[in-house]
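Bug report

Summary: structure tokens for XYL2 arabinofuranosidase differ between web form and batch submission.
Environment: batch mode, default settings.
Steps: 1) Submit the sequence below via batch. 2) Compare with the web form result.

Sequence submitted:
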Amino acid sequence: MLGHHYTHTFLETAVASVNAGCNLELSYGMRNNVFMHIPQALAMGNITLQMLRDRVRPLFYTRMRLGEFDPPAMNPYSALNLSVVQSPEHRNLSLEAAVKSFVLLKNIQGTLPLRARDLPGQRLAVVGPFADNPRVLFGDYAPVPEPQYIYTPRKGLETLGANISFAAGCREPRCQWYSRAEVVRAAGAADMVVVCLGTGVDVETEAKDRSDLSLPGHQLQLLQDAVQ
């Protein structure tokens, strides 16, 4: 609210938030955050003790239900490790969720899905800044990924047995520096081209908006060169 000029001070923001029913602040690790001013607001009579108790109660009720105050031995989730989280069952479920979340805008002549049985002997080009760059595949507020579990488009397609050629064209999503020759060389020798474009958190994220929906930098040129 402070950043949007709805309020002018942290104290005013704390009062307005608590009175509106907000009971939790995402403080970004700041020591001097908004809700640190709640005691001052309480002392000044801007909020009541009963209101403060009403706001705190559901927070601690939820934390107790989650077992945060239980001895670790009582919480079965405390013993989970990557062997459980990254078990074949969980990885297969994640794959199923990913496959079912695709939005297919066009499928001219039934090009998709690519079938592993049809790819041996085919020459496949994978191009673009998202083709083999694990760092840019994760969106805002994503967990820190384990590199061993990341499959880029290039790495995933290589498991299907096709003859893969790769050209990033530009190293990062901003695509300020672009190698047309690299893309043309890879795409020109292929039977099929997979172009991997987008934005990523380098270009847009929370508090980093854009004024248009155009592809960044030379990405549109990269796409046109691949199509040509």
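Above is the batch result. After comparison, the two runs are identical; trailing whitespace caused the diff. The chain has two domains: 10-74, 103-226. Residues 10-74 form one domain.
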